[in-house]
């Protein structure tokens, strides 16, 4: 694995679109997963609408990942809000 960069570049269209999708109330997307490419750059590993179970299928033991899952929170009065869960995963073989 290449040396990791100190700056993070999330400007690729693919990453930007995935982030917009996971944040959108209109989109089905409820998770996005990023990892490091061969040159140490941040790349989109996947996105989907199947929640944590679907995201987990993308994880490999020899990689580092950063992910976000969108969940729906309901309070005692029935008000619903989107909440975002940040996930940092370091595989056991890293």
From TrEMBL:
GO terms for cellular component: actin filament; cortical actin cytoskeleton. Residues 7-94 form the ADF-H domain. It comes from the Eukaryota. GO terms for biological process: regulation of actin filament polymerization. Transmembrane segments: none annotated. One of its GO terms (molecular function) is actin filament binding. This is ADF-H domain-containing protein. It comes from Rotaria magnacalcarata. The lineage of its organism: Eukaryota, Metazoa, Spiralia, Gnathifera, Rotifera.
